[in-house]
C-alpha cells in the first residue's frame, strides 16, 4: 500500500499558507507573529467635529439666530455623523479585502466619539503594511502598555470647610448628584464604606458588567474620592487587570469613549459622568499627540473633567511626566507629603514633544500622595498608600465638590479654579505646577486674598523692613483675618511676625533683625488668611550678604561671616580703629577663578563657583593693600558648594 503521509503533510501546509492571515499557532502564524494594532482614520472624530462646528457658528455664522444656529448645528452634525458611519463601513470592507475571507474577528474595537479609528486584533505585520496604503488611513500603531501608578489629608486640602457650604438647592456641598468614573482595576463595591456610593460600572478587561476589583488599587482610589466628596456617585470602569496593567491601552480608550457617549450614537445628551479619574500611566514619558491623550482632550471638550496622575518617575528628573497626565487638557497631578514637601518620586515636567518644537508646563497641581489612608479589599483599609495615583483622586473629589457648587461650570472653569487657587509651595512650576490644591480656595475663586512680598533680592546684615501687599480679595478689608511672615534657612519655617490689617504696597514688618542670621540664601513666606478660611501665600528667596569688617591700622578682623555660599555676594568693609572708612585695594583670589580687584572702603564681591561637584567647599583669600603706607592684610575665606542651599 502506498504511503500517503507526505501528501497529507503537503495538503496541511498548503491550507496554512492560504489562510495564514487568520490562523494562530502558539501566538504566531505562518507569515509571522500576529499583533494588535490601532488604525487611526484621517477624518475628525465626532467630539472634534462638534467643537469645530460650534466655533464656526460662533465666529463665522454670527448672524444666525438661536433657533437657526441650532438647526444649522443639528443638520451639519447629523450629516457628518452619518458620513463618518459610512466611512467606517467602507474602511472595514476595504480592510476585509486586504485580510481575506473568514477574518471578521480581527475587528476588535471601534471608536468614533473621542477617537476616530478601529482596533485590529491578531494581524500580521505584512497585512498592516498593506492597510497603511489605504486612502482613509492616517496612521497605524501598536498598543501602548499602561499600568497603575503606585505609591489625614482631607483637612490639609481644606475639603471639610466646603462641606458646610450650600448649593443652589440648599444641599451641603459633599459631591451630591455628581458622578466620578474611576478608570482603574475596578472597585470592591461590597466594601461597607463604598457600597452606598457605587452606582454601577463596566469591566473592559473581561467584557462584562461586573467591575469587581481583583488587585486593590482602584478600591484605594475610590476611598479617597469619597473621603473628599462623601456623597459622590462612583462609577467603576475596570481597564486594568489583576496585575494592574493594560497590555495595549485600548481598554482605557474604550472607557473614555463610553463615558463621553454611553450608547455610541453620537448624541452626548445621555452623558452621565462628570469627572474621569485616571490613576494610571504609560511605561515611558508621554507625548500629548498620543491617541490616549487625544481621547482625554476630546472628553474634556465634550464636557467631562479629566484628572490624571503625573507618574512616579521623579528620580528621572525633568521630562518624566507619563501619559495620559501629559495630555493638554488633563488636570495633571503630582504628589506631596503631609508637610508640603514634594514627594521624591513625583514625575516632573516640562512636557516636550513634536521634535522639541512644543513645550508645556506640567504637572498642573500637586496633592497629598504619601502615607495615605483609604479603603482596601474585603472591607479592609490601608494607611501607607503612596504615589501620584493617590494624589489624583483627591483632585477628582475636589472637582466633584466644585461641580455641585457651580453646576454651570465647564471643565475649563473647574481646571482654572483648581490651578489658580492652589497654594504655592515655592518650587519650580514643572515640579509643583501651580502648587498644592486647596478646596476652600477653589470654592471662593476668584475672590482670593492677595499676598505679595516686595523685597530686594539680597540684604546686608542689620535691621530691615519687609515690604509687600496684603488684601482680602473680596473688596472688604475687614475680611482679612491675619497675615503671617515666616523665615526659613534649612528645614523648618519660623514665624517672625503676625499682622491683622490690609497693607497696600507698604511695610509688613519693621526692623527685622537679621544680624544673627547665617549668610547665603534664605526663604521668606507671607501667608494671608481671611474669615472665609481662604488663604494665599507668596514665597521669595533672598540672599543675606555676609560682611567682613577689618580695622586696617591694627590688622584686626572684627566681623567674620564664616563660609560664603558660591555665586553669592558678600561685603568687605575697611575701617581704621576709630571706624573712619579707609579706601584701599582689595584682591579676591581663588583657584580656577578669575581674580577680582576693587578699590573702596565698602566693597561688594561675588563669591566664585566651587565647580568641583565632589567637593563641599573651595578656599580663597582676600588681600587688602593701602598703597600710601604699604599696609597689607591677608584674610582666608571658604566658599561652600551650592548643594548646601536651602530647599
Q: Quick summary of this structure?
A:
By secondary structure, the protein is α/β, with parallel strands linked by helices.
The CATH topology of the largest domain, please?
Rossmann fold
- Report the biggest beta sheet as strand number plus sense, adding barrel if it closes: 8 strands, mixed
Domain count, please report it.
Answer: 4
- Share of helical residues: 10-25%
Q: Briefly, what CATH class of the largest domain?
A: Alpha Beta
Q: Provide the structure class.
A: alpha/beta
Instruction: Note the gap between the termini.
Output: 90 Å
The number of E-state strands comes to: 35
What's the architecture of the largest domain in CATH terms?
Answer: 3-Layer(aba) Sandwich
- The poorly predicted ranges are 9-31, 643-647
**Global outline:** elongated
Radius of gyration: 32 Å
- CATH homologous superfamily grouping of the largest domain: Peptidase S8/S53 domain
Q: Beta-strand level of the residues, as a percent range?
A: 25-35%
| Count of individual helical segments | 13
Give the overall pLDDT as a whole number. 88
